Amino acid sequence: MTSEATGVTRRHEFVLFFDVQNGNPNGDPDAGNLPRLDPETNQGLVSDVALKRKIRNYVALARADVPGHEIYMRDGATLNVEHRRAWTAVMPEAKPEDQKKLPKEAKARELTRWMCANFWDIRTFGAVMTTGVNAGQVRGPVQLAFARSVEPVLPLEIAITRLAATTESDAETKGGRTMGRKHIVPYGLYRAHGFVSAPLASHPVKGTGFSDDDLALLFEALGQMFDHDRSAARGEMATRKLVIFRHATALGNAPAHALFERVRTLRVHKGEAHEIGADATDNWPPARSFADYRVTVDREGLPAGVEVIER
Q1: Taking the domains of the chain in order of start, what are their residue ranges?
Q2: pLDDT tier at 4 (50, 70, 90 boundaries)?
Q3: pLDDT over threshold 70, residue 1
Q4: How many CB atoms lie within 10 A of CB 65?
Q5: DSSP one-letter string for 168-180
Q6: Which residue from 148, 189, 186 is spatially nearest to 24, judged by alpha carbons?
Q7: Across all residues in the chain, what is the average pLDDT?
Q8: Beta-sheet pairing, 178-196 with 142-144
Q9: Residues 6+ apart with CB under 8 A from 17
Q10: In this structure, are residues 114 and 84 in contact, taking their beta carbons and an 8 Å threshold?
């Protein structure tokens, strides 16, 4: 943490809606890279780790040259090298064997503060930095839950062909043509919940220094991260709606689950709107675009001290 950074002092929660069309939002390596599914409900899943990866990638692009916005968990990074940077900055006289254990409490806090001040994703999501060269561990103020599709999805396995052969033998035996498989979801609207803890951001000892500017960057990333994550597997993914609940206090003014229940998703067809799963929707065609849904936020009787922001 830098002396200029003031940690967030108000609690926040948010609901993120994003969709995928003819793509694989999060492949499961234990299932041949099929889209992740809840086997009991057939609802699609996207892990919190996948969402954090996209957020990190956006911040790396948007703030590449801005001090304090390095990314700790990035492609090709060697974590112990980053830990040694903190040791060199805080205790340049320390020998390599001294770096395996944390020093006394005050110096240990300086190490973690240096890491938080320089790495945006550490002061946001936290990190365990005890991999040989010990820089401590930090509990981040921002946490994300698994995203879940609002309705069951039906993954498809598509056969594809390639005209170029991999090896000489393939060229001779297969005439240069090879076959492959691609997994897609025709359409799915996903909902994820997120949490921002003010005490973990601004506490004088445990706080990471996650600031209001960092929070604004997080919301910016949530809105634009899919625009910079295109691939053959994820060609059409987009953030559709972000609903933010901002509390007036650090501890909050209402339970998170009660606020999340105010955000509802309805199915829409030919001017009619019904709850998902309602009998009236039994003969409706499957959803194939965001226009087949309506997201509503109940503002009636909103608890005092809670503000709703829709983006």
Answers
A1: 12-310
A2: very low
A3: no
A4: 5
A5: HHHHHHSTT-EEE
A6: 186
A7: 94
A8: antiparallel
A9: 189, 190, 191, 239, 240, 241, 242, 265, 295
A10: no
